[in-house]
Amino acid sequence: MRLRRLQCAVVRGRLWMPVLMALVAASAVMLFVGGAAASRAGNHTLYTDPAGDAQSSSTTNYASDIRQVDVTSTDAGKMTFQVTMADADAKLVSGDELGIFVDIDRKTTTGDSNGYEYEFIAQGAASGGTESFLFCSLRTPRSCQEFESGNAHDNKTGTNTHIIDFTITTNTPAFDFLVVEAYTQPGQTATLYDYAPDSGKYSFETKSDPDGDGLYGSGDLCPTVPARGKNDANNNGCPGPFKLIATKEAHFGGVVFPSFMRLNQVRVNGAAPGAKVTFSSPRGGDSVRANNSGIATSRRVKGDFRYGSLITIRITKPQFVGVLLRERIAKTGLKVISRLCIPATGGAPVKCSSKLKGS
Prior knowledge:
This protein has strands spanning 38-40, 44-48, 56-58, 61-62, 65-73, 78-86, 96-103, 118-123, 132-137, 143-146, 152-158, 161-169, 174-184, 191-196, 202-205, 243-244, 250-256, 260-268, 276-280, 286-289, 296-297, 303-306, 310-316, 320-330, 333-342. It is an all-beta fold. The protein has two domains: 38-208, Immunoglobulin-like (Sandwich), CATH 2.60.40; 243-357.
């Protein structure tokens, strides 16, 4: 039997826990709030439920009164639900069950008969026992597993209030949810309820895509670096993986004279087929495309060049890490004086490293 219910003020709690991967991606982004007022600040929303609206049959048989639901998300997709409840016990007791039903894709045709795909459950225990916390998939066949230790709690916050919290991670932009408190007095069959909201659903927008690349929360491993389409081949939110153009040096044909070299040909090997290769020199230059064998030959870098003259070769192709070669003409041929890489995502040439390939 539950103790006599008392009216009391709501006390907010602030809890944080390790994460449990649970939710899947959805596409809806618009925010809706049904059945209650909500104040919003960034990716945090506080939903309030009217005091005293829990069902009861007597002063000792009643459902705990849901007072507010505090939902917070981070850019990394960490989600925390905190449900403040009022009752004389200030804890879940035997016969208590709190459920948060989540409609991750906001479609009534998926999940259970009401369109919910997931449920987080907190169950009270008999005197001296321990509460249990479950994460359930409502898709057929339904399955449940326990939250790992530290991922869910029931904490007393006042004389007659307590907060039940759950933490998961998600890569969804928005979802709908419903909170239900149910109490069945031991030895009886009638169940009493409190719903938040009293009608409809709450909706929450995670706002967990700070780089604006369309991947949210835990689905974006590089949340501050935008990566889209071909620049994100494995759809993890990070640029790459990219291939590195393998050209190390230019090849040439020419005749050596005392003060100059007469170049007959300058070419590169190891370029990606179709790559753009730009040759520049004191006698002019040109741009050509590498053939299917990765070879590109300049048509204009020919003639007499004084020793010490520089030839610059730039090789680029979309979704490839490019190469910038600077070569000096010497009596022994073309000597590479610098080799830099051109990031596939654009920008100035930089020192070559495996990091440019992305992940």
